[in-house]
């Protein structure tokens, strides 16, 4: 069976691989045997190997060197281009982070291949699905030139374990002068919150303009903490200064697909739905029974969030 290269994204905190990598490994299985590619400093692959094996990596290409971490995305694109030339894989699958999309673009130029970004599904014949215009249009496309390169949109594929041999093969890193053109001078890892990361959480509680102030977001946070959930926010809440932009869910924010999404004081505009409509179960709390979010919700509570949410938090905490 043909090999499919999957670029590994690691947790910046050093705790194994990101969920996006497990999603990419799962998506890649439609096209062939996943072969994970780890590019990083010495010892990087060791922390990732068990997870890569658990999610179906038959091989792990280890491109480690003291210097790759000193540069930005260029080393990863160069290592992938080297592997494409040496191994002739059926495709390359990369998580759709800003970094991943830049690597895909560079790799496409280097290998003379077509690439598709933000795909939500890859069919065994290589046809990729993309969602456009906030979910209003579904596009099916296929790469017709070179080695197909895909970036997989976060939370669109459910990671599924599958046994993989994860046989390691060392790759000699040969960076060009161009890859050394931009050097990292400092890295700041965001302080770790006790809450799960928004895009990886299995429960998300989001607040909207209805929360009415930054201080009142403590109501949302308390419910989230009672459930071990991440906190999200609508753009109106973010633009009003109630919550930081990094927690925005929607078309111009993050895409989440948790088991449970609780929308509190959020009307359900199409741009908000674009970031959460694939959640498995959606609960809405809104004082307006006509709010569009109720069309999407599996369960709805019509009421004032300042009454409903603290009651729910209390009941959950008491359990
Ligand atoms: P509103 O629409 O004002 O709704 C507030 C809701 O709270 C109402 O339904 C109201 O009934 C309810 N409410 C008020 N008080 C209470 C209370 N005490 N108890 C219970 N319920 C109460 N939006 C996003 O969220 N994410 C995006 O990424 C995004 N990207 C966008 C991109 C573009 C190009 C554009 C044009 C818009 C984008 N938007 C995005 C904005 C989007 O169109 C909406 O304006 C926004 O989602 C509305 O946020 P909201 O639901 O919190 O506010």
From TrEMBL:
Keywords: Electron transport, FAD, Flavoprotein, Transport. FAD binds at residues 209, 234-235, 248-252, 265-272, 286. Heterodimer of an alpha and a beta subunit. The electron transfer flavoprotein serves as a specific electron acceptor for other dehydrogenases. It transfers the electrons to the main respiratory chain via ETF-ubiquinone oxidoreductase (ETF dehydrogenase). GO terms for molecular function: electron transfer activity; flavin adenine dinucleotide binding. It comes from Geodermatophilus poikilotrophus. One of its GO terms (biological process) is fatty acid beta-oxidation using acyl-CoA dehydrogenase. Gene3D superfamilies: HUPs, TPP-binding domain. Residues 4-187 form the Electron transfer flavoprotein alpha/beta-subunit N-terminal domain. This is Electron transfer flavoprotein alpha subunit apoprotein. Belongs to the ETF alpha-subunit/FixB family. InterPro entries: DHS-like_NAD/FAD-binding_dom, ETF_a/b_N, ETF_a/FixB, ETF_asu_C, ETF_asu_C_CS, Rossmann-like_a/b/a_fold. Its cofactor is FAD. Pfam families: ETF, ETF_alpha. Binds 1 FAD per dimer.
